[in-house]
Structure formats: structure tokens, C-alpha cells
């Protein structure tokens, strides 16, 4: 969750170099570059390569797009009265965490990537602030995804008991727990002396590498919510399959000589080779089925993207401190920014499956003209 965590400890990795082999070293942009024979001009930093410039440009665009898209979602929720209810408060909480990731975390991570040798040149105090916001915002973003999945699960499986009042209270409680747990994980090293984020001698700024904190933080920030969302989506899939299958099975046999005309939007005709049958499916049920199916697909895509974005980073975060080993810096950078990109995909996913957001966006822009 932090760029400085992507550096290789000076004593952790050694690259065997021959007299004629090319040596690889981090370029100022955090991208591995090469110099023939390991030669480097004394007193001069290696120049930015074209590839480095392209990568930095893409990262800047990612930061800007993540910030603007989540800000647009927040403004829409605040301005449209119909969105002042569940589940849009959960979406707003997710957008807040993702906006903070784009505004406070990703830019400083990029600055660290651009510094020679990925050194932290902004001092100890700012290092602690950055690391705390990094862990806080990324953890809150992850737990907000779990909260959205839980809300959808209860809506589908307990739609009679899960009333509007109950849903409002549950969502408020989940939001409060999300931010409280995220703050606890982020501030634990500062409050309880659980390792040090800043190393003045090596000018490193990274999340505490204390093995016990690595287990605590990775489990609390990722593996626990991962277990929640996977279990919840499995239950959503089973419940939706059972409910929709049961409705299709509710048929009424008719005499073979009776003719039945299909009434559009009122009944769905189902015929077999031996005996005609009709399954009555009122338009209200059909609308609810389509809505629940669309919501289940949205949650599935949201969970899938979340897992693909974050699991490489958190696997490395858990394994590296425990085995005292380290990945090459280039792979750590890739894993880190892949995780950050989840904050860009979140608003795209839950607005793409909700036509109300698209209509609200169009209305918002038309008013500005």
C-alpha cells in the first residue's frame, strides 16, 4: 500500500554481475533501466528514458482520472436527493476513500518512485502522515467493497426482514466499523510502537516491516475482507439461483385442447413437447428479478476486480517480512500501482450497472451549460 514498501533492502538482494554482463539499476522513475557493463557517469543521475516518461504519464493520468471520477460520484450523490439513502451512502463512503487515495496517497507515491533510488526526501513527519493515510484509505476502500457486498447479500436473501430502517442502520454501522478498523490498522505502529516507518540513514519510508504487524495489517486490511466478500458472493449466487429456479418451476398445467394467448408483460408462456403449461410471472416480479440479477452481476465484477488488483500486492506484503526476502523493485511497483488502480475501477463498475447514475451525470452536465 505504499511505494516505499516497494524498495529492496540493501542487504536483502544482491545481483551477480560479470565483467561483461549488463547491470540493472532503478532509474529515477522507478523503472528498471540498464547501463552497458554497469557503467555510470560519476556525479550524474541516469537520464529519464522514453519508457520511463510514458509510464510516468500513464500514472499521472491514472491519478487524475481516479480523483475526478470519484469526485463526480460524490458530487452527484450530494446533489441528487434520490441518492440520499442506502445503498448510495455505501457508494459515497467508497468514493471518499478512493478520492483520498488519489489526492493524498498516489501523488506522494509517485514522488517517491521518481526520486533516485526511491529515497524519501520529505522528512520523518510527512513520512508518518503519508504512510498513515496510505494504510487508512486503502483499507477503507477495501472494506467498503465488503460492505456493499454484504448489503446486496442481505437485500437478496432477507428482503422481507431487511427493511429500509434496518438497512439504513446496518449501512451506518458498517461505514463506522470500516473507518474505525482502518484507523486502528493505520495508527497501530504510532500508537503502540509497532515498528518504524522512516529510516533516516537509508532515507526509506515504508510501512512497518515488523513481522507481527505485517500479519496483523495484511489480514485486517485484505485477507479478512477477502474472505467476507467471497463467502457473501457464493451465498448470493446460491440464493439467486434458488429463487429464480423456484419461480420458473411454478407452473400450472392446462388441458391439451385449451388455447392460451400470451399477455405481454403479464405472463410468460412456457410450452413442452407433451403438454402445454403456462408459468404466471407478473411484471413486478420480472422487474425485481432483473434488478437483483443486475445487482448480483455488479457485485461479482466488483469483487473480481478487487481480488485481481490487490492480491499480488498483499501476497508480497505478507510473505516478504516473514521470510526476510524481497521481490525486485519493478515487480513491487507493478503490484502497488495495480492495487491503487482498484480505486479507479470502483466507481466505473457501480455506476455502469446503475442507470440512475448515468441519468444523473447527464443532468448534472446539462445544467452546467
Report what the structure shows.
The protein is mainly α and 369 residues long. It contains 9 helices and 7 strands. It has helices spanning 50-79, 88-114, 124-157, 164-192, 211-249, 283-323, 329-340, 342-352, 355-368; strands at residues 23-26, 32-35, 198-199, 204-205, 252-253, 268-271, 276-279. The strands form 3 sheets. A 3-stranded antiparallel β-sheet has the order 5-7-6, covered by helices on one side. It has a two-stranded antiparallel ribbon with strand order 1-2. Strands 3-4 form a two-stranded antiparallel ribbon. β3 and β4 (204-205) form a beta hairpin. α2 packs antiparallel against α8 (342-352). The longest helix has 41 residues, at 283-323. The two termini are 40 Å apart.
